[in-house]
């Protein structure tokens, strides 16, 4: 697969604020690519740079190996779905969807076939003449998609398209968007602050903080092997505790207050070594709680100090170690799962293969 | 509580009476048979409206007024639309200062505006005619147009323009297909209010009119002849009704701008 979009060392400042600060990334053809980050991290600005609504201070953006420098939005092979959908209120559904077709020389029949095809694609068949003011949020979303896809862009840009929808509809649209993307095969670039959305929908995710890309990886890699502590705590939940490195070599021997001495392979560690200190990250679902009477010397003692019940999962807060550190543990409330009470003494174990280390 | 409520009602009622009762006298006496403006009324008659049909100087004044009103409301709306577009969409140095100066005629006493315009025009050697009145009225109406157009443009979501560009339209196409239709009710409201204000305006017209009298100036000149008072009242009645219709229409269009644009933002 070739690179469809290439962002090369792009910088964009607004006054003294660097919204995008030297970002480089590559997006392959047909990929579902997400820009993920907290608000103000520059992800929307980056999307608007690709669309051509903003001009970079320096750096270059290429689409299909063609520089987009000096090319206005109306001449770029990109189309955008706006956060508030930007449906033209004075036009009906059909007029909205066919808005971009005016300049293409099409017969009336071709035009109406294209309109109906794209309305079919987004599940709005038959609503051609519906006034855009009479549309629900989800329907506006679909009109915005149809309006962009009818022009067969090389890249579809989506600016937080689902943030205005309620939870149920959002989840439904997530899977629909994914299906749609596979069906049309167009490269999608999605901006979102919702890590769950990014993980479930994307082939690849770029995590951004303060105008810089911190990590670009597949959702699984991002979750299981975050490259920095910031990424680790932004994507899902993670327990952090510090440890001391006892040796050097391919497998590090580490001593931690909670876990005691254990070994960590180098490929589970990110960053550059500085001193003997290392930050250890453990996902809450990679910790297993056992009853206190379990007989095994590999288990660690702990005490349950808080419980939050979420239906399919339960979160426990464990107190453990010499310094009474706390660990968050999540358990699936599946068949045969034990229940524990606040104040109960337990023994727990950690899946060593899922531990990640960050040089601090 | 109930007492203060009662007093408030009395106050509000008398306020409205003082405000509108004099205007109601106008239509009442314009249909009165007697030439004398006094109660009791002597009978119903259309005669004063009939005499309006045979006064050439009145017709000339009406024609002048229409020329002035139409030209100045169009000019002011064009200027107001451009100024409002510039100030609502773009940031530039001296924006606030220039806006304040453009809006100043709203609060400046008209007599001062009228006198100073007169002095300037005479110094420049420009003859006073309908065109000088159009100039003065455009100055007066532009602030109103800016205020109306500001609310129209402020309600216009910038992402609609971006969406249009994104879908392949250029600046001109975007203006024609998106911006214009969405601010059109504001433009119509501005035209109607401008027309009404210009049609009724007296002071500036009085100073700048020269020999091409406008309707209000003509009416004023008629007050010297007590005989003609009922006819003038008939004319005033017509003006009152026309103004009311135009203002209601413009209010309708002004509300439509904010409503049609707000409904997008609701969800």
Q: Which second-level CATH architecture of the largest domain in chain A applies?
A: 3-Layer(aba) Sandwich
Number of helices of chain B: 11
Q: Whole-number average pLDDT of chain B?
A: 84
List unreliable stretches of 5+ residues of chain B.
Answer: 262-267
Spatial shape of chain B: globular
| Intertermini distance of chain A | 37 Å
CATH class category label of the largest domain in chain A: Alpha Beta
Supply the number of helical segments of chain A.
8
The CATH superfamily of the largest domain in chain A turns out to be P-loop containing nucleotide triphosphate hydrolases
Supply the key terms:
heterodimer; A: 360 residues; alpha+beta; Rossmann fold; OB fold (Dihydrolipoamide Acetyltransferase, E2P); 6-stranded mixed beta sheet; 22% helix; B: 267 residues; mainly alpha; MetI-like fold; 11 helices; 78% helix; disordered C terminus
Task: Annotate the secondary structure layout.
The complex is a heterodimer of chains A (360) and B (267).
Chain A: E1 3-14, E2 17-28, E3 32-36, H1 43-51, E4 58-63, E5 66-67, E6 78-81, H2 93-97, H3 108-121, H4 137-149, E7 155-159, H5 167-184, E8 187-192, H6 195-201, E9 204-209, E10 212-217, H7 219-224, H8 229-234, E11 239-245, E12 251-256, E13 260-265, E14 269-270, E15 277-282, E16 287-291, E17 300-309, E18 313-320, E19 325-332, E20 345-350, E21 356-359
Helix pairs in contact in A: 3-4
Chain B: H1 2-30, H2 47-52, H3 56-89, H4 95-103, H5 110-123, H6 130-154, H7 158-166, H8 171-200, H9 203-208, H10 215-222, H11 229-266
